[in-house]
Amino acid sequence: MDPTQLPVQIQTVSIILPNVTIYYPMVTGLQNANAEESINQAIYQQVQALIAQQGFYQNPAGTQMTGYYEIKTNERGILSLTLGNYAYIQYHAHGLTILKAITADIHTGRIYRLQDLFKPGSDYVRRLSDLIRVQIRQRNIPLLNDFKGIRPDQDFYIADKSLVVYFQLYEMTPYYYGFPMFPISVYELQDILDENGPLGKMLPG
Residues 180, 181, 184, CA angle at the centre, nearest 5°? Predict the structure, then answer.
């Protein structure tokens, strides 16, 4: 097999502070050192953004925080992962988890936005919204409000030859439901995919 298609090496790095335990990934051994640095910097910046977003710096003594990650895709030169951050702030009814994702090209270090997965000018927002609307109905997903469609920069990751579009807690559904995840097969999007983008690379060939 072409070595550029093989999985990349991942090391787990930790941030340990009073009341805080965060684990996040670091890419190692890439042929392109600049790409490796770009990906690792993007991961670290997102980890720090989650810490700040959860309000840790406003109340470090009263905040308990746990961070974790999951590798969703590590093949064909594409790395897609999620970074989760759970925080409980003293006197709140319950904690809150925020889940963010990063999808990167291991050769160039490019971090992809949702729009970068599709051909320029394709109406990916409408296509994805329509597919998600069908799943909402089929899966009887409880909504807080009528579903009006995804944002152009909606959260996503890539896993198992699928695009997984997801929503934050409270963004679409009640808290008890968890994160609404909508896996969409690459074959349902094949006609609008950028063939050289991360989803296009998941197609056989």
Answer: 145
Q: What is the pLDDT of residues 42-62, one digit of tens each?
A: 999 999 999 999 988 888 889
Q: How far apart are CA 124 and CA 121, in angstroms?
A: 8
Beta-sheet pairing, 96-105 with 156-159: unpaired
CA atoms within 13 A on the CB side of 6: 9
Does this model's pTM top 0.90? Answer: yes
Grouping H, G, I as helix, E, B as strand and the rest as coil, residue 156 is: strand
Q: pLDDT confidence of 6, banded at 50, 70, 90?
A: confident
- CB within 8 A of 143, min separation 6: which ones? 136, 172, 173
Using pLDDT thresholds of 50, 70 and 90, give the confidence band for residue 3.
Answer: low
C-beta atoms surrounding 146 within 10 Å: 5
* Residues 43/28, Cβ–Cβ less than 8 Å: no
Residues 67 and 24: their CA atoms lie apart, in Å, by 7
Distances (CA, A) of 143 to 89, 108, 162, 181: 26, 39, 24, 13
pLDDT class for 93, splitting at 50, 70, 90? confident
Rounded distance, CA 3 to CA 141, Å? 42
